[in-house]
Design a protein that fits this description.
358 residues, alpha+beta, eight-stranded mixed β-sheet, three-stranded antiparallel β-sheet, 10 helices, 48% helix, flat
Length: 358
Amino acid sequence: MLEKLSFIEDRYDELSKKIADPDVISDQAVFAKLCKEQSDISPIVEKYREFKALNETIQENEELISDSETDKELKELAEEEIKESKQKIEAINEELKILLLPKDPNDDKSVIVEIRGGAGGEEAALFAGDLFRMYSMYAEANRWKTEILSSNPTDIGGFKEISFSIGGAGAYSKLKFESGVHRVQRIPSTESGGRIHTSTVTVAVLPEVEDVEVYIDANDLRIDVFRAGGPGGQCVNTTDSAVRITHLPTGLVVSCQDEKSQHKNKDKAMKILRSRLYDLVQSQQHEQIAQERKSQVGTGDRSERIRTYNYPQGRVTDHRIGLTLHRLDAVLNGDLDEIINALITTRQSELLRGEKEE
């Protein structure tokens, strides 16, 4: 590990020199790439330098203790400082192990979130709306931008399905664990007998990708335009502005009708299609390394029931890590940090355990 850390520190110093070079600064593309690389390894270098400084402190104190001319009181102080430094080094060692774990290349990306009502009809659609609100509030707390790309609202205020983007650095690293089946247990507003119903909603979190990352041949697309419609006669256009794009090789279909402009609807539909195709390719690659994907957290299996929201008891349970919180209202208001941080920590533990086994 020390050899790897030394190499990373040398690379950091090399990047610092390159970034200060006027020729590099004049090439904005290269400059941005180098700055990004330096920023990525900066936390590792900072911890490594802290690690080296503590080792130097230990060495200096050991020399002080071994010196016959050092008085007793000073030796005791030196021994105490050695003890404290060793404790700090142990903690830094653990931090460095986590910092050196392979990084998901999508972690820094923005995301496209797709929420669909499952079992439960109107109640499932209402809960899909609740989850959209939850993620929107979480995004707002992180100062990320949310934009609806496509939606199919119901008459009573929910969504049969809704796709939206959350733009912000690191959005995928936080939200990627949300993919799966979310189950809700509550008394529907339409239930006169006061019985608790169980409904489900599926959530898919896709990394948002640029044009250059996914090549789509125009000949592989069938683009249909039609007149948009909505519940209760709302959102009905008098022109064919809604767009449906079919990717013929895979059969993926994306529709968008939220905008009045056909051009804007097409742009949004293409954004969703690119992310779905990217996700499809990734899923195929991940099947080849199934053992890694079987880990408890982050399997990406969207048929998996990952979380239950129980309204009568005011609790939320994440079934992958056995975490139960009795603060449902806070979670639904976007306070997801405790759950997400626990999922990230468990994932890191799984990766560390995998490296030790290798």
